[in-house]
Design brief:
Mycobact_SerProt_Inhib_Rv3364c, 127 residues, alpha+beta, five-stranded antiparallel beta sheet, Roadblock/LAMTOR2 domain-containing protein, Beta-Lactamase, single chain, 44% helix, Roadblock/LAMTOR2_dom
């Protein structure tokens, strides 16, 4: 994506990501990432590097896709990573992008999944 176009897409998506983060005080960060790991737009807390997050999410998604195919689970829809300090949800936005959402431990997981899916559907219409 060319720099000017990337900047305009980021300006378009950033308010949507901020709104998603505002759904709960336990929602920490969100980002739209291309399948090859490039950060398209991000609203991140705690000094997280968007390019580093993008690369890690792309690697995680690639491995999850391969695993789903190998185990004949169908097309991958989302990845859920549960850690001691929080959760990370990756949701497909069409075939070329993914929405990453990070939240604190104790958040209502159903709400995170629902809001991530709704946001991914909205963003899909914009990309």
């Amino acid at each position: 994506m060319q720099n000017g176009k990337k900047d305009s897409v980021a300006k378009l998506l950033s308010p949507i990501l901020r709104k998603l983060n505002g759904k709960s005080s336990d929602m920490e960060s969100s980002a739209v990432i291309s399948r090859d790991g490039l950060s398209v737009a991000a609203e991140l807390e705690g000094g997280v590097d968007p390019d580093r997050l993008g690369a890690m999410c792309a690697a995680l998604l690639g491995l999850a896709d391969t695993t789903a195919k190998e185990l004949e689970r169908g097309d991958l829809e989302q990845v859920l990573l549960l850690g001691g300090s929080g959760v990370l949800v990756l949701v497909h936005i069409g075939s070329s992008h993914v929405l990453a959402v990070a939240a604190k431990t104790g958040i209502n997981l159903g709400m995170v999944l629902l809001e991530a899916k709704k946001t991914a559907q909205l963003i899909k219409t914009m990309l």
